[in-house]
Every structure is written in structure tokens, then in C-alpha cells.
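Suppose you are handed a protein chain with no further information: no name, no annotation, nothing but its sequence. What can you learn? This example shows the usual starting point.
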Amino acid sequence: MANYIRFDWAMKRLLRNKANYGVLEGFLTTLLEQPIHITKLLESESNQEDEYDKYNRVDILAENDGGQVFLIEVQNNSEYAYFQRMLFGTSKLVTEYIERGRPYTDVKKVYSINIVYFSLGSGTDTVYHGKTEFRGVHNGELLNLSPFQRQKFKAAAVSDLYPEYYILKVNDFNKVAKTPLEEWIYYLHTGDVPNETSAPGLDLVRNRLQLDRMSKTELDAYYRHLDNIVILQDNIFTEREEGRQEGIAEGRAEGRAEGRAEGRAEGRAEGRAEGFAQGQEQGRTEGRDAMIRQLYEGGMGIEQIAGFAGLTPDEVRLICQA
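A reasonable first move is to predict its three-dimensional structure. Written in C-alpha cells, the prediction is:
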């Protein structure tokens, strides 16, 4: 069993303490391959849970001494629109941190760092990096800053002015950690630190995020957190499979009926597609609601369930009262 506190739990309970900024600084330094010194943690409108922002809950929002903003999110449950969520989060930060009437030169650089514990998109790597570049339609030439702009903005490329995105698909990491970044991903995935590590920040994980430093009450809450994650993921997987099987069965039945009227081949294809989608969606919703009631009856709080399920507390209450 791992001897260290998982990063997602530490972010919510421990890393907001200035004494532990070194852990975050080490992680960001390793990921961005440049020294990062956190000046302060920020309060953002994006942290507010209302009807419009319920899918944009920020775990940690930090700023360094260069004015760059770091949005760090951990997501345990699958969310098919997570790419749009990332875009929404960075867009809000860009507008929140510039006062009305200020010049556009005051727009802050934003890094969106997303640690996801589910299969996001289709790809075989564990770390993805996205940035904005402009290329000529006819000759493929990269559009660059002018010498004046480079000096004025203290930037080498146009992409340095735009938000950058990092996605760490930590559950897909299944090899021996050989680089500092892989050592961090190993810790994010397993909750344990490699025996010999050179990655900045992981030495502080060893010193400050040990399980035996937690009180019995904190430890009980931490283990409930781990159990709830397992329950959540198992329920989502089970209901998705059930929905898939129901969808395939309904699709075949509808496909045969429509095939008699419009052609056997075309009817099967359309029926399977529609039935699969309907069955999957129905199974997903029913399974989610059942899982939410189970967690609530097991003593998990409304706010915590809402965070795991990607819903508002009011939506969770309605489901639990149904």
C-alpha cells in the first residue's frame, strides 16, 4: 500500500497551505521544464458553483512572480465534454484577470493543467500538450512576432501569448518511471513515490504528504474518499456496459423491423446506431442516479457527491429525494 497521500486529496486539503507550495512548484517545474515559483493562490469566479459554471470547478488556481496563471484540475469521473470544459475554464480566466479599460497587453498567460483519471479522447500517450499557432494556408509558414512585439511582450513566439493546455492521462501509465515527469505521473497514478527520484517536489511529498502524519479522523475521511472513487468508477463502468448491451439489443430489433421496409442492410445499421445511443444514454443516467443514492445513503455529503458526479448540489438533492 502506498505510504503517501494521493495528489487529488492533497490539492483539496494540504497544498493550499503556503508551506506546501514547494510540492506544486516542483510539479509545475517538471511539467513545464522551467523554474516555477508560486506567489499566491488566487480566487476566481470559476470556483463559484452556479447554474452556468457547474462544470467548471477549479481545484487550484495559482500565479507566479511573472504574472502567469496556472489552473490545475483533477477529474476522477468520465466527462465526454471535458475538452470544452478546458476551453471554458481558460477563457474565463483570461477575461477575469484583466480589468475593464486596461490594454490587451495586460492579458495574462494561462496554463491549463488537467490530471484525468479516465480515458479522454483517443490516443496512446500519457501526456499531451496543446498550444495556439498560426500557419499560412498556402505555404505552411509559421506566423511570428515582430522584433518589437518580442521585446514588448517578452515572448519568443505568438503561442507564448495564448493559453497552453496539458493533459495527463495518468491511468494509462504502465511502465517504469525513467524521467522526472514519469516519476511524477507514477505518483499521480499510484499514490506512491519511486524509491529513487530526482523530480523536483517529490522529495517534499515524501516529507509532508505521508499518511502517518494524518489524524485518525483525517485518515478515515481519506480512506472514504478512496472507496468512493472506486465505487464511482465501478458504477460508471458497469452501467455503461449495461447500456451498451441494451443499446445493441434494441438496435438489432429496430434494425430488423426497419430493414423489412427500407432494406435489410440499411435498416440494421440505423437501428443499431439509434438503439445503441438510446440504450447507452438511458443506462448511463439510471446508473448514475443509482450510484448517487448509494453514496448518499452510505453517508457521503451532497457537496462531495456533486463534485464527483459533475452536478450541482441541488441536482444531487433532487436525485436523492426521488
